[in-house]
Amino acid sequence: MFKIISVSIFISFFLSNLASAASMCDSNITRELEDCAKSNFDLADQVLNKRYREVTSKLPELDRTLFINAQKEWIKYKETTCRGAYESTSPGQEAGIDRWTCLDQMTRTRTNEINYIDTGIGADEFYRALDVVARYYEQGDRNRFITKLVADLAKDENRDWQMYVRDTCALAVRRTREEKDTCVARQQFYRY
């Protein structure tokens, strides 16, 4: 058991480092920036697909069903969101950069979520951010900020996002014992 956990942690660490090996897009030429952003997305997408296959293959049936449904819902949400990023700048030359950057960032965030669901490791930065926000804006009360983020989801009209959060949080609660409202708040916090 210890060996399996150690291997899972190593794989998660290795893949997250691989995903962060993306190029720094620093050209002054729009086409080169777009190509770089696309290359970064392609790398992030490869890492996500590899982790998705690995995690899917080892989940029990109920968890696998939730995981697959959440992934389908996330893909719909990602495509709609990044199409919106493109259309908001189109016909400007930067539209392609915006689209690929959106796809890259959303894919990296989803990979982190998959790693968290698999290992239970990776929510620390959210909890640190939660503490900072609570300290400065909520009189130190984490639950007030969590409640606000949960309420934002309830008002959200994007059905793909709502379904993704529902299934992802059901899975996170089952696998990591995270409280449902905390999971919902985390999803809202990292939403693109």
From TrEMBL:
Which Gene3D superfamilies does UniProt cross-reference here? 1.20.1270.180
| Signal sequence coordinates | 1-21
Span of domain Lysozyme inhibitor LprI-like N-terminal: 27-113
- Keywords carried by this UniProt record: Signal
Keyword Signal carried by entry: yes
Q: Matching PANTHER family, A to Z?
A: PERIPLASMIC PROTEIN, PERIPLASMIC PROTEIN-RELATED
Output this protein's name.
Lysozyme inhibitor LprI-like N-terminal domain-containing protein
Species lineage: Bacteria, Pseudomonadati, Pseudomonadota, Betaproteobacteria, Burkholderiales
